[in-house]
Design goal:
about 750 residues, Beta-Lactamase, Alpha-Beta Plaits, 8-stranded mixed beta barrel, 25 strands, binds ligand C2E, binds magnesium ion
């Protein structure tokens, strides 16, 4: 059976796994976004490094080109000077060369003369560098600190030695303007996102633009400029020292620092290989670059959020569907579709809980059903019958506490857990009355009678099935008993049930193997003091010799229908016996056989009796069939018809046990019977007082008046015989004359 607890666990398992999946999803999204973020960053960085290199290559190419241009001037000057041209003539030679790209292009003689293409010369600048460059034995290309271009930017100074033989006679000195360099496409990526500088070891630099990014205002030194607003701390100094060390070894470097507004600036350094300590430096603000890709990242974040939201919705949906199907399962498992109340599963779960949590309260389990519910169904239709079932559940609320339960098990079977206090009986009858009232209100006139089987729950009872079964044992004990509406469980009841079970399991085999024996009890004519006949009574003698009396098995057989077989067996045995004895010319006497009311319901009954009689050529006048009053409770007219048919077969009929049940003298006038057998109990009570004797006398007179013989059963004493003689009751049956004895013994005693 499905337990709520298990379903709750299943619910939380779905929820937990959903949450785990969602967290994994969330985690994967975060990782994906951070990967995306860092891959963007490294892509930007790669792009900068690539472009810085390309820029450096570009600068290198220009530097090399100018270098070879100036070297060719130097060579021509060297050749001319070697050929004895005087130094002033150098101006003419220089004049041939295009000096537009240079701020100055001059030949600086070792001895101090300065010659340029125009012959005009600002000797001051050259004087400041003359001593420094005098020792340059190879071309030197550096950033100039002494000459600026017309935009105020540093220039690139070329110093190319001019040899006369093995000696240096002077140097070609040129200051190159970078104007236009950075307009080239090579720098487009860097320039659109950052800044480009040329710098040397000392931080002398050339910026791509006047107001270059990161370098605000007038600055002579790039490092100082870059760090101008950030804390120029020891760390920054170390940083710069590190950069310089890298530069001294002409290494490509990457550094980053946090600028004055707290943004991270990445600095990429690339040496200009054919120069002296000139570096290409590209700076970009990483945060700004990331800002540029933020929309892309944002889109990814939104997609991730949508995925997570989708996951949440999915989880909620799965959880809600699971919850809903659980509710459906729970309804199917715990609800009864006809009454819309709860069912046995619910009772099983709940009843024990209630009993366990209310130990001080005495409880009873009651199983009840509606007497003749089948009839209500057939006579009033299923809809109204179902309404009555529903009322049984609904009306419980009116009379019983919430600790008390009432569920329908199936068909018209109900189960109740009630408090066993002083009002329990009153509540039960009020409840039954309310159900009746409801039935009447929907037009069901048939009285609703509920049959209750009650079991008193004990403290040690922990098995709900046992509790239910015991209440059921009590209820079942009422089966076939129309008079009682309530039965209480007892151990004797169980023993009885076991006996019934045993009887039912063995009966068929017992009949087959002849364990049912015919006993005969004499009927006596007390006037003539002679045998008047006998009654055939069944005895079950087991193979071990134990005898079972009819009061133990007849009620069981009447309930399960086996009585039909036994009665026919008895009838056939007697018919065979009588037929055979007649054939053999032996003495016979009238014998009566008990016939259950069930037999008469079989449409083939009369036919079957007739067949048995003819089969054994039984003299019908010596066969008497005993019927009880209950036969006529059913369908009186039909029964009268059957009785007529039996009489047509020339059989004698008697009414057995008259006075034991619903005796109606009225009945006798309509039903054509031959013998009236007054019940043993009725008779023994009758003869105790004079008035009773008068009643008995009148019954005898009336029966005789109707043409019936009267037989008194259970005659045990002489006194009784005397009374009966006085009352002119001719026939008796009882232990006074004979107990029922085995057939053979009877024959031996009376018929030989
Ligand atoms: P019954 O038909 O009224 O049979 C008479 C019962 O009263 C017999 O009980 C008999 O033994 C008992 N009896 C007779 N005289 C006396 C007496 O003086 N004192 C006392 N105390 N009892 C006396 P038995 O044989 O136990 O049968 C009981 C009932 O079982 C019968 O009552 C009959 O209704 C039923 N029965 C027995 N055999 C059959 C059968 O083959 N078929 C059917 N349908 N019912 C049978
Ligand atoms: Mg009888
Ligand atoms: Mg009887």
């Amino acid at each position: 059976m499905l337990k709520i607890k298990n379903r709750d666990q299943a619910d939380s398992r779905i929820m937990i796994s959903g949450l785990v999946i969602m967290l994994i999803c969330l985690f994967a999204c975060i990782i994906h976004i951070s990967d995306l973020y860092s891959s963007f960053k490294s892509q930007i960085n790669r792009e900068f490094v690539r472009e810085t290199k390309a820029s450096a290559d570009h600068v290198e190419a220009i530097v090399a080109e100018k270098n070879s241009y100036l070297t060719s001037i130097s060579n021509e000057l060297a050749a001319a000077l070697s050929n004895g041209v005087d130094e002033e003539t150098t101006a003419d030679i220089l004049g041939k060369y295009d000096s537009k790209e240079f701020v100055y292009l001059a030949y600086l003689h070792k001895a101090g003369g300065v010659y340029d293409s125009d012959g005009e010369w600002n000797t001051d600048i050259f004087r400041t560098i003359q001593d420094t460059i005098a020792i340059f034995k190879r071309p030197y290309i550096e950033l100039s600190t002494e000459v600026m271009d017309e935009n105020g930017n540093h220039t690139l100074r070329y110093v190319i030695p001019v040899y006369k033989g093995a000696d240096i006679c002077g140097h070609v000195v040129a200051y190159y303007k970078y104007t236009g360099w950075f307009e080239k496409s090579e720098y487009s990526y860097v320039r659109s996102r950052g800044a480009v500088y040329l710098t040397d070891l000392e931080g002398v630099f050339y910026a791509a633009e006047e107001e270059a990014l990161f370098v605000k205002g007038e600055h002579k030194n790039l490092f100082e400029a870059l760090y101008q607003n950030s804390d120029f701390t020891a760390k920054s100094n170390t940083h710069i020292t590190d950069i310089k060390k890298g530069m001294q070894h002409s290494r490509s470097e990457q550094n980053s620092y946090i600028d004055h507004v707290g943004k991270k600036v990445v600095m990429v350094l690339e040496p200009i290989t054919n120069s002296d300590d000139i570096f290409m430096v590209c700076c970009y603000c990483e945060d700004d670059q990331v800002e540029a890709v933020k929309p892309t990242i944002l889109r990814s974040v939104i997609v991730c959020i949508l995925i997570v939201l989708l996951m949440i919705c999915l989880i909620i949906y799965v959880w809600a569907s699971a919850k809903q199907s659980n509710m459906v399962i729970e309804r199917l498992a715990y609800e009864d579709n006809i009454t819309e109340g709860k069912n046995t599963n619910f009772f099983r779960d709940k009843a024990l809980q209630i009993i366990a949590t209310n130990r001080e309260i005495p409880f009873i389990a009651q199983r009840f059903d509606i007497v003749n519910f089948r009839y209500i169904n057939e006579a009033y239709g299923h809809t109204r019958a179902d309404e009555i079932l529903k009322a049984c559940i609904d009306l419980k609320e009116k009379f019983y506490d919430e600790k008390e339960l009432c569920v329908r098990m199936d068909s018209d079977q109900f189960l109740m857990l009630s408090i066993n206090d002083s009002s329990v009986d009153q509540k039960r009858s009020d409840y039954m009355e309310a159900v009746n009232e409801f039935a009447r209100s929907i037009g069901v006139k048939y009285p609703i009678r509920l049959k209750f089987g009650v079991y008193q729950v004990r403290k040690q009872d922990l098995d709900i099935d046992l509790i239910i079964d015991r209440a059921n044992v009590a209820r079942k004990s009422l089966d076939g008993d129309e008079t009682k509406l309530i039965a209480y469980y007892s151990d004797a009841l169980v023993q009885n049930m076991r006996k019934v079970d045993k009887i039912e399991s063995e009966m068929a085999k017992a009949l087959e193997s002849g364990e049912f024996k015919v006993f005969l009890q004499a009927k006596w004519d007390i006037v003539e003091n002679k045998l008047a006949g006998a009654e055939a009574l069944a005895r079950w003698i087991r193979s071990d010799g134990t005898m079972i009396f009819p009061n133990q098995f007849i009620p069981v057989f009447e309930k399960n229908g086996f009585i039909e077989k036994l009665d026919f067996y008895m009838l056939e045995s007697i018919c065979r016996l009588m037929g055979n004895r007649v054939k053999e010319g032996k003495k016979i006497c009238p014998i009566s056989i008990n016939q259950s009311r069930l037999l008469l319901h079989n449409p083939e009954y009369v036919n079957n009796v007739s067949k048995v009689i003819s089969a054994h050529s039984t003299p019908t006048e010596c066969i008497e069939l005993e019927l009880t009053e209950t036969v006529f409770l059913d369908d009186r007219n039909r029964m009268i018809e059957i009785i007529k048919q039996l009489r047509n077969l020339n059989l004698k009929l008697s009414m057995d046990d008259f006075g034991s049940g619903y005796s109606s003298l009225n009945l006798l006038k309509d039903i054509p019977l031959d013998v009236l057998k007054i019940d043993r109990e009725f008779f023994s009570e009758m003869i105790t007082s004079e008035t009773s004797i008068i009643i008995l006398q009148k019954i005898i007179e009336m029966a005789e008046g109707l043409g019936m013989e009267v037989l008194c059963e259970g005659v045990e004493t002489e006194e009784q015989i005397e009374t009966l003689k006085r009352l002119e009751c001719r026939l008796v049956q009882g232990y006074y004359y004979s107990k029922p004895i085995p057939l053979e013994e009877f024959i031996e005693k009376y018929l030989t």
